[in-house]
Amino acid sequence: MIFGSAAIGALGSFATHSILPALSSIRADLHSDIGVTQLIVSLSLLSLGVGQLFVAPLSDRFGRRPVILTGLVLYVLASIAAASSKHIGWLIGARALQAFGCGASISVARATLMDYFGPTRAATGIAYTATAILLVPMFAPTLGGYMAQYLGWRWIFVICALLGAAVLIFNWVRIAETHPRDTVKGLRPRSLRSYRTLLISPDYLAYVGFGTFMMSAMYTVITGAPYVVIDVMHLAPSTYGKLFIIPALGSFSGFFLAARIGRRFGAVRLMGVGLSIGLTSAILMAVLVLLHVWQPLVIFLPAMGLGFSNALATPGSTSSAIATHPHIAGAASGLLGFTQLALAAAGTQLVAHLADRTPVPFVLTVLAQVLIAAAIYLYIRKRRENPSPSPEYDGSETVAL
To answer: 382-400 burial, b if ≥16 CB within 10 A, otherwise e?
Structure first.
């Protein structure tokens, strides 16, 4: 179960990370500018979230397996379309469809972990899955950089299609249904009721908000660093790809540690530790850049701390958010994924819009997102000290995480 979920998540991770070093090549080849080219990243993140928001609840109605397989088929077909794109608009559209299919599959795969492990063990399952997913950024940017530099950026999407086909076949053969088909009629009203329930749940919104801003800060690093390092600091795409292993190692180490100590420390405590490390890293990066120390390691070493902190903090916030309403885990997972990726897309596009040939807008955006996460964390701690549980959820599952 974990391997199948990790493979699906790895597809999205590979597509996102491998294309980043190639953005400059795409911009030159398809005669675009930075704002339009960055839509390849920001719209795909938004589409990844939309796929989770609108498709994930279908798994509560029809079961997890058919939704996962349909999303993987769309991923493969869209990858082929992206590889053959002759215009930047077609490439952006194909990349968005690729992300939509992957987003639907990722969100439902996350819900299968909740089905399989239960709310008290889901954080550990998510962390182990994320550990496997975080292996991908250790080689994807390097591979993407070398392909963009020596073979052409289209080969990145060819590899995406081949990997997607392999994961599709594996899950077709091995994936098991973890959620019984719901025979209740009227899917759309039920989905809307599920989202309405989640949107008026203070506990759910708090955990989602914290995880969203922590993850968005890391996505801003992932998607903004190529512009800062390649265009502003004038490094080659292949060099960027090799340096990206630094923050990837931080994320991998954090998820591995979270998987080992998550249940012993508890979700909220681990969230606090991760937040402290992330805030320190974001402040360090911002201070050094404002002092005009513009070197690649000024970006990548604090990014390592941000990756580590995000990996510690987000599994607990994710499982805690879904555990507030386990009876609608698919909808809870879908809304969570959409919120995280929509904000990440906004942050990505904001950095591109503010681009002024300096790293300053980039680092200030990252710092602002971590500061907002800190404010939400204080709210979560206050709620735990003065609980006012709803009839649907008493908060006990979160404490056990």
So the answer is: ebeeeeeeeeebebebbee
What is the pTM (predicted TM-score) of this model?
A: 0.72
Tokens of 125: 């399952």
- Kindly report, residue by residue over 38-62, the tens digit of the pLDDT: 888 888 888 877 776 777 667 666 6
Q: What is the pLDDT of residues 93-141, one digit of tens each?
A: 999 999 888 877 877 776 676 666 665 555 555 666 666 666 777 778 8
The CB-side HSE value for 280 (13 A sphere, CA atoms) comes to 11
The alpha carbon of residue 385 and the mean position of all alpha carbons in its chain are separated, in whole angstroms, by 30
pLDDT tens digits along 196-245: 888 888 889 999 999 999 988 988 888 888 888 888 888 887 788 788 88
Instruction: Please check whether residue 134 lies inside any domain of the structure.
Output: yes
Assigned domain for 180 exists:
no
The range of the structural domain enclosing residue 357 comes to 2-175+189-384
How many domains does the chain fold into? Answer: 1
Task: Give the integer Cα–Cα distance in Å for 115 and 201.
Answer: 21
Both structure tokens of 41: 């990243």
